[in-house]
Amino acid sequence: MSRGAGVTAIAPGGYNRATMTDAALVRAVLEGNTTAFTTLVDRHARICIRFAARMLGNVEDAEDITQETFLRAYGALGRYDERLGFQTWLMSILINRCRTALGTRRRRDARIVVDEGAVAVAAVQPEAEEAALRDAIARAVARLDAAHREAFLLKHVEQLSYEEMSAMTGAGVSALKMRVQRACENLQAWLEEERHA
Questions:
Q1: Around Cβ 193, how many Cβ atoms within 10 Å?
Q2: Cβ–Cβ < 8 Å for 183, 172
Q3: CB contact at 8 A, 37 and 22
Q4: Residue 6 confidence class, pLDDT cut points 50, 70, 90
Q5: pLDDT digits (tens, 9 = 90+) for 17-33
Q6: What span, in angstroms and rounded, lies between the C-alpha atoms of 110 and 101?
Q7: Residues facing residue 15 across a β-bridge
Q8: pLDDT average, residue stretch 162-188
Q9: What angle do CA 160, 166, 23 make, to 5 degrees?
Q10: pLDDT for 11 beyond 60
Q11: Which CATH number fits domain 120-197: 1.10.238.10, 3.40.50.1970, 3.40.630.30, 1.10.10.10?
Q12: Average pLDDT over residues 89-110
C-alpha cells in the first residue's frame, strides 16, 4: 500500500471537512471549533455573493452584504434548526439583508451583474446579438421591484423549489408563484418593447 493511500485529509481542529454535513459543521462550531465555520463560509459564499450581486446590482455591495450575513449567521448559530437546512437558513438571512439594503438605498438605478460563468461564455462566443440580449435582460430584471426580482432570481437563477423559496423568504408558496409569474410577464413585455424600439 502506498504511503498516502486511503488517508483522508483532516482539517485543523480534527474534522474531515469534505465529508461533514453542514449540520455537523454547525455542531462543531457550537462545540468551540471555529475552524468549522470557515468550511461553511467556503461552501456557501459563492451562491450568496451571486444572489446578492443580482439583487443589489454590484459585486462590492454583494460582498459587504454576504460578509454581514455570515457574521449574523455566526452570532445566531445557536438558533439554527437542522430541519431547515443550513443553506436555506443562511439564504433567509441574506435575503433579509438584501431587502434592508434595498430599502435604505436612495438610488434606484441598480444594474444586474453578469456572473463569471456568463462572462466566460461571452468571451468564447462574442456575438453581438447575444451580448445585446444579455444586456437587455439585465436591464429588464433591474427594472423589477425588489419582491418580484427576488422571487424571479430564486426560481429561475438559483433554481429553487417554491417550498425552499417560502422557507427562505417567509412568503407563502402561492404568493411566490404569483410574484414569479408577474416578473416573467413584466420581463416579457419590457423585452418586447425594447425589441420594437
A1: 11
A2: no
A3: no
A4: very low
A5: 678 999 999 999 999 99
A6: 12
A7: 11
A8: 93
A9: 75
A10: no
A11: 1.10.10.10
A12: 79
**112 and 138 in contact (C-beta within 8 Å)?**
yes
Q: State how far the Cα of 145 lies from the Cα of 165, in Å rounded to an integer.
A: 17
> How far apart (Å, rounded) are the C-alpha atoms in residues 65 and 59?
10
Which residues are bridge partners to 11 per DSSP? 15
Residue 15 φ then ψ, to 5°: -130, 155
CA distance between the termini of the chain: 70
Residue found under cell 435575503: 95
Return the CATH number of the domain spanning residue range 11-107: 1.10.1740.10
The chain-wide mean pLDDT, for the chain, equals 82
